[in-house]
Amino acid sequence: MMPATAAAAGEGAHSPSPAAVSLGLSVAVVSSLVNGSTFVLQKKGIVRAKRRGTSYLTDIVWWSGTIAMALGQIGNFLAYTAVPTVLVTPLGALGVPFGSILASYLLKEKLNILGKLGCLLSCAGSVVLIIHSPKSESVTTQAELEEKLTNPVFVGYLCIVLLMLLLLIFWIAPAHGPTNIMVYISICSLLGSFTVPSTKGIGLAAQDIFHNNPSSQRALYLCLVLLAVLGCSIIIQFRYINKALECFDSSVFGAIYYVVFTTLVLLASAILFREWSNVGLVDFLGMACGFTTVSIGIVLIQVFKEFNFNLGEMNKPNMKTD
């Protein structure tokens, strides 16, 4: 039984061509940089609108951030169709240091030497994630996707996420959202359990839509359902991201959002697509170390941002004389 199971698992995994992987990685990296700029541009637009006493919907900078967000999501969609989810999602870390650097210029937010070190660690951790991530897909057809979507474990997970979202949106957010950053972040991150798998699923279903066979009609219905789920999730995410940016620092929001969002998306993808089944122990430990390195870098960027610390001050004690 064991050899047969292993053979079945090997047959179910599909390895994209090196060109597809390179293209997917390139699109993912560019998308993460574009997404890293969105919070900063939207925050800048909100600040400008408040100074004028108008709605941020009338500010061109806010709209540029919104358009950048749309372009970044399109790029993510293309990347998800080319390479595994567990490879694309962690690369969003590159947007955090880029956003912090951009915020230091546009919003005059502080970025000291520890923040710059955090940027370097985030980039290094992302490289480690790329090296050790799975290079094969465990779900490659519409039939496999439908089977995974009806899996009781995944359905149970989605029910728990829906209950948490209802509790957060209707009871906790109105009372504690403006004072607790984790409320809005939790809503946006939990919605990632729908957006990323839906995006991946649309890419798989779209492959069969234009084929002249009985499964094309089922693929069309599945694609429409996933598009509706994706659209609703993005609209709700968009609303609460802007609510968070009205109340909190864009860099702090972006950093915490990355860690929570990535963790929940990887959990949802692990349950649905089982991409981790093709990862060996060494690669698993490598990805864990890479994600930890990224998280430490993000902490250095944000937690110590208020410290007035630079390399020049390190030499001051040595310059004192008796």
From TrEMBL:
InterPro entries: EmrE-like, Mg_trans_NIPA. The chain crosses the membrane at residues 20-41, 61-80, 86-107, 114-134, 154-174, 219-240, 252-272, 284-304. It is a multi-pass membrane protein. It is found in: Membrane. Keywords: Membrane, Transmembrane, Transmembrane helix. It comes from the Eukaryota. One of its GO terms (molecular function) is magnesium ion transmembrane transporter activity. GO terms for cellular component: early endosome; plasma membrane. PANTHER family: MAGNESIUM TRANSPORTER NIPA1 (PTHR12570:SF17), PTHR12570. Belongs to the NIPA family. This is NIPA magnesium transporter 1. It comes from Sarcophilus harrisii (Tasmanian devil). The lineage of its organism: Eukaryota, Metazoa, Chordata, Craniata, Vertebrata.
